[in-house]
# Entry
Amino acid sequence: MKRAFDVALSGLGLALSSPLWVAIAVLIKLEDGGPIFYGQERVGRGGTRFRAWKFRSMVADSDQRFGPLQAKASDARITRVGRVLRATAMDELPQLWSIFRGRMSFVGPRALLPSEIEVNGAGQAVPIEHIPGYEARHRVTPGLTGVAQIYADRDIPRRQKFRYDLIYIRRQSSWLDLRLILLSFWITCQGTWEHRGAKVGRRRASDATRPPDLSRPHAG
# Structure
């Protein structure tokens, strides 16, 4: 049922968003004349790899100049058009094709790069596959949105974000998927996907690394 829902909703999304694709492509080209799309290899279910595409939101040569680093607040690599795209998640529209093909789902853990690293408290680089919870994430198909994407602060360590992913793996249901999708639409309408801290609800600073209680109607 989850797969049927993904196919139906992604197909509808591709059809309805086609005018936006044209408008976004024109705006990207007008800003700096660079490529419209940006592709990266990602890790999917069972450790399989696939090519994920987004609308380009950073300067064209950002990977060559700075490496594939996670975006930070006021990141100089992000273009003017890119800031709007990222705040509303419109840069993710090409991911609908990955969902339609079965490489991704609407809801699940974020698809990670094969060679991401994490810097621990001692300042040491740690391969992301060595962080507890990494392997468990690959039991399910990666998603466009999910518990970690919505509830986790963007700047907390991956070890903490993986705890959010494990909540989804253990509690996944059609109702939870629908709830997370509706919350994602709300965040898009608010333009707060790049917000540091809580995107929904009013979580205390002391709860920044604590996963939400999804059994409540309005977690967070």
Notes: The chain has one domain: 2-204. The chain has a mean pLDDT of 86.
